[in-house]
Amino acid sequence: MARNDLNEMDEGLMDPSGASTTRTAKVIAMIHCILGMVSLAILGVLLLLFAGGLVMAPQFMGMDQVSTGVSESSFEGVDPAEQLSRIIDDLGTAVKQQMQHGRQLVTPLQMKQADTSTHNIPSQTLAAFVYSFPIVINGQRKENLARHEGTFNFRDGHWHLDRVAVSFKFFDATEFSPPVNILTESVEKTPEFQSLKTMWLETVQQSNATMAQAKDEE
Fold this sequence. Notes:
Elements: H1 2-10, H2 19-68, H3 80-98, E1 104-116, E2 122-137, E3 140-155, E4 158-169, E5 180-181, H4 191-217
Helix pairs in contact: 1-2, 3-4
């Protein structure tokens, strides 16, 4: 419209007194058109990225299941007691491997108690072990105890490690200290704690993954 008005002003068909305002309106209109096209281009790119994300999401979800090795369908028909026995066996082996740098296994890993549901399927169980470790005070070696107790809950077809309570009994104490859940506490700055935390998490994960793979192959 501004272009037409300017043409008519040049041809003497329209009063030229508003030429300056009309030219300003023409520039503003051109800027708006450019911004509109840029906005549409950006919107188009975002839509393409969003569509691509929807296509790739199932693939990434599948990769996540492969990395953890655990899916609900993988454990269908696998007896919970059999699953738990396999996890405890693998953990027992891992615990023995952790007994180094002066650690001495006092009580091997064993199940302490198990709750059962009305269908005779265990819903919760505890696995615990105790080891000793030395500290040196004024040149004298003192032995201390550490107790680990893992809480397993059965849901979604397999066992989940939900808590690892750690408590200590030092050489001059009569009782164990209040337990601390190392799964929720930051222990990265303590290599001894971190190695044991990693042992619990990775062993249970790998044990579940191995059982799930065996069930899938079957």
